[in-house]
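Lecture notes, unit on protein representations.

Consider one protein chain, 317 amino acids long.
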Amino acid sequence: MAKKKPLAIVVHGGADPDSDHIHSNKKAYEAGIRQAVDEGCMVLEKGGSAVDAVEAAVVSLENNPLLNAGRGSALNANGEVEMDAAIMRGNDQASGAVTLVRNIRNPISLAKAVMMNTKYRFLGDMGALEYAKKIDIRLEPSSYFITEHQFDLFSKKREEEFTSSDHIGMDQLNARMHGTVGAVALDRDGNLAAATSTGGTENKKMGRIGDSCIIGAGCYAKNSTCAISGTGDGELLIKNITAYDISALMEYKGLSLQQACEAVVLDRTDPGEGDVGVIGVDLQGNIALVFNSERMHRGWKTSAKKQGVEIYPKKQN
């Protein structure tokens, strides 16, 4: 009897500082992460592709108003929502990405459409919106994306800017406020995929682009190594080319997935520079969940009977 090939799905809901909001909504966060894992796993168990699985998982996360992607996205300095997303498949390393999109209910689905149906790899702003309209990607009014929690954060940061005694800049005020969602998967055909989506950072400069839509920084997939979705301080992930660096350490140094993730996130990243978290899966179905922040919403399920949902670091016995 032929042995079944391994399956795996891993998702994250951002690596950030802790907050009272997270503590008061802990069960709801856990339920949302679990639902995203189940949505992705359902695709895999039915024989679907890793690409379809990560899209399904991230759509679930984008629809969750507690998370900073899709509905629930952060507001920029103008009180508006600008979203980024990227997706990549490991067998041929095709990818699709969108940036600075508005009114797109699920930016990850638009990124997938760019990958699957166009000769391009990256569309932004109004060009991305026009393409979405052309292919009937679902749109929503601006009010759909603005949650009470994100508006409160926006208002608080605006107040801090105007009342600060030393008039520090908006970028400094928001240096540790961020959030992202993502997923990685391995399907029955032995293919990997990764997807990442974000609403950016609170009160960010209009037009600011983070790591989530940049292949090699916040999203990467290659069948011979791994699939990675990153989260944390976007400028830091871009600087370190975090997702690709993990793959390169596996390819050129022979490190395991766990070793490569720990090397990049824990050894090569100065914790004083900011928060970084990654989730990953390799062709054998091994998974990794590594972060240097106070917490990272994360969930996973594999055909090796491994599954779970966690927010904070595991307690050491």
